From TrEMBL:
InterPro entries: AB_hydrolase_fold (IPR029058), TEII (IPR012223), Thioesterase (IPR001031). It comes from Streptomyces silvensis. Gene3D superfamilies: alpha/beta hydrolase. This is Gramicidin biosynthesis protein. One of its GO terms (biological process) is lipid biosynthetic process.
Length: 258
């Protein structure tokens, strides 16, 4: 077992290529978070402080960002899922659940279903945030097919970038290709309704999210045989970063039965 270095208790740190964790040895539950398009594991860093003490935070780090910036983004969903499962093994002991935001929701769903197919450890709960159902994605317009400038504008309109970052063209030129690669990966990927998941699913959405409108979230109920619920927050696509929306608190209460 890998031990944590002194001074890192409660901080989100890399444990292997795909797994970052803020260890809480006495936690009752673990939430494993999957980042949005172009996002890194550190997008959830503040959750380490915001979650209840009884919930440990782990996050998935994908190639092409942060400490893996020198790697090419993933181009094959099946291979990506298998690699993630292999690297997540240290975090799949004891009760755990998944949270995915935007494209990360689709990845979290596919990892959950792959674990179910294997008959191995599987999430107790799946939280799908700011992501319409796969059939809506496939039927609707696809962002990755937009001309370059229109794609840039659409990505900026979703939010999620700090003002300083979005105003720095050089930085954006480095970030946007990774975002584009993620949209290409998931807007081309087909996700079937069967086999349905056997864990409860909660769909979370911002009330004014144009990318994942509220009415498109209920369709996720067809992808699970377990209870399905929705939760609407004020805000847009990145409602979870908006002041007053205590998403980690909501997730923690759901996991602990409060």
């Amino acid at each position: 077992m890998r031990t944590q270095r002194p001074g890192l208790k409660g901080r989100l740190v890399p444990e292997n290529r795909y797994l970052w964790r803020a260890r809480r040895p006495d936690a009752e539950h673990r939430i494993i978070c999957f980042p949005h398009a172009g996002g890194g594991a550190n997008a959830y860093a503040h959750w380490a402080r915001a979650l209840p003490e009884a919930v440990e935070l782990a996050t998935v780090q994908l190639p092409g960002r942060q400490n893996r910036i020198g790697e090419a983004p993933a181009t094959d969903v099946g291979r990506l899922v298998q690699e993630i499962i292999a690297e997540l093994r240290p975090a799949l002991s004891g009760p755990f659940s998944f949270f995915g935001h935007s494209c990360g929701s689709l990845l979290a769903f596919e990892v959950a279903r792959a674990l179910q197919r294997r008959g191995g450890p599987r999430p107790a709960h799946l939280f799908l945030s700011a992501q319409s159902t796969p059939d809506v994605i496939w039927a609707g317009p696809k962002l990755h097919e937009l001309p370059e400038q229109e794609f840039h504008a659409a990505v900026l309109s979703l939010g999620g970038f700090d003002e300083e970052v979005s105003a720095d063209q050089e930085v954006m030129d480095e970030l946007v290709p990774v975002v584009l690669a993620d949209f290409q990966l998931w807007e081309r990927h087909r996700i079937a309704r069967v086999p349905a998941l056997d864990c409860p699913v909660t769909a979370l959405v911002g009330a004014s999210d144009w990318r994942a409108p509220q009415e498109t979230m209920a369709g996720w109920s067809a992808y699970t045989s377990a209870p399905f619920t929705t939760q609407v927050f004020p805000g847009g696509h990145f409602y979870l970063t908006e002041e007053g929306n205590d998403v980690p608190g909501f997730v923690g209460r759901a996991l602990l039965g409060a």
